[in-house]
Each structure stands twice: as structure tokens, then as C-alpha cells.
Write a structure and sequence with these properties.
The chain is built from 5 helices and 8 strands. The chain is of the alpha+beta class. The N and C termini lie far apart (48 Å).
Length: 222
């Protein structure tokens, strides 16, 4: 005789893996559709994403235009999401992006050593201790464009689709289930199974990052 109907696996949930809402729905399904865990799922998914933001596979190529120069100010704080700046420009005349040359902070310190400082449109930049240093000191207000390697942000809304809801969908799904099953449901069997799948996905992403790095590509820009 056959074994009869089998109970569905708590990991059998399948939807297009594209949005933050779909990721949270997958976690909920793995937790046997416990509707009372909605706020816990949201919190733990965010916590797991924040944890994995420190991994090398969580970076992507990006362009940042959040910095605007102020006349007489040479140093600007970089957004905390930026890991590495690979190029810089400033918008001159409202329509022309002029490149800035990357130099060492030591060179700028040597050149910019008189008071009052020389002010003009900048020509050079250096990165030091999370700061962007321009030389000469800007004499006006210009928008700065940075090409960079940037940490992928936690999804802002349920409709958000980014690295965490696509390539890292399974990692965040299983990592969240492992924590919730262990700490909230006290279900060691479910937690153990989720943890094993989390570790598998973690290794997969690490190996993919190594392979892409060898070809000169950035991990999450797939």
C-alpha cells in the first residue's frame, strides 16, 4: 500500500521571489501561517538583513548624488552605506559633469596648507576616515556625483525589490525562520532545518561572490 497523503513541507512555499512582501509571506508560510507573528517576522527579517549587510556579497555598484558642496567647506561626510568610492564628478553650470582626480589625503594636506585656503572649483578629491575631501576648497555650491560600491539597503516598503528580495531571498527567509522557530516558537526541529538551509544559502552566495570577484564584477550587481 502507498504511504498515503504527506503533510506539506514547511519549506515548500513558492512565489515569484521579487518583493519584500513576498519574502515576508514566505517566512510566514514556513512558520505554518501564524498570523500572530506578523510583527515578529518584519522585525526579524530586518535584523537578519542588517546582520548580512556586513558580508562581501551584499555590496552593489551604485551612483550617489547626495553631497552638495558649500562655499568654503572642503570636507563632507560620506553616506554610511558607501563602502568604496570608485569615481567622482561635480556638476558645473547645471549641465556638465566635470571629473575629479583621485589623489592621496597626504597630497591634499600638503597643497592645502595656507590660511585662508584657496577657493575655486575643485579639481581633486581624497577619501579618508569616511570623509570626502576636495581640493581646492569649493568656492560655490555644486552637486557631487560619486560612483561607488554601496551596501544594499533594507527594503523600505513591501513593494521594494532589491538584492535581499531576489538573490538573497532564500538566505533571509531561512535565517528569519531559524531565529523565530528557536526563540519564539521553541521548535528545535524547525529551527534546525531552517538553520541548515540558511548555511547552505550563505555558502552559495559567498561562492558566487568569489567567482564574480575573479571576473572583476561586483557581487550583487548580477
Amino acid at each position: 500500500e502507498g504511504a498515503g497523503p504527506q503533510a506539506p513541507s514547511p519549506f515548500s512555499f513558492s512565489l515569484p521571489m521579487s518583493t519584500y512582501t513576498q519574502l515576508q509571506d514566505a517566512i510566514k508560510a514556513d512558520l505554518r501561517n501564524r498570523s500572530d507573528l506578523a510583527s515578529v517576522i518584519t522585525n526579524e527579517a530586518e535584523q537578519r538583513i542588517a546582520f548580512f549587510q556586513g558580508e562581501p556579497f551584499s555590496a552593489q555598484e551604485a551612483t550617489d548624488t547626495s553631497i552638495n558642496t558649500v562655499a568654503g567647506t572642503a570636507t563632507y561626510t560620506l553616506p554610511t552605506t558607501i563602502r568604496e568610492v570608485t569615481g567622482a564628478w561635480y556638476l558645473y553650470g547645471g549641465n556638465t559633469w566635470l571629473p575629479l582626480n583621485k589623489v592621496s589625503i597626504e597630497l591634499i594636506n600638503t597643497l592645502d596648507n595656507i590660511s585662508p585656503a584657496v577657493q575655486s572649483p575643485p579639481t581633486d578629491y581624497a577619501i579618508y576616515a569616511g570623509l570626502l575631501r576636495l581640493y581646492p576648497v569649493p568656492s560655490g555650491a555644486w552637486n557631487v556625483k560619486l560612483n561607488c560600491i554601496q551596501i544594499v539597503a533594507i527594503p523600505a516598503t513591501g513593494a521594494t525589490s532589491n538584492f535581499w528580495t531576489t538573490d538573497a531571498f532564500a538566505l533571509i527567509r531561512h535565517a528569519s525562520v531559524a531565529i523565530i522557530a528557536s526563540q519564539y516558537l521553541h521548535d528545535p526541529e524547525l529551527a534546525s532545518r531552517a538553520l541548515a538551509m540558511e548555511q547552505r544559502e550563505h555558502q552559495r552566495l559567498l561562492m558566487r561572490e568569489i567567482q564574480l570577484s575573479a571576473t572583476g564584477r561586483v557581487a550583487s550587481h548580477w
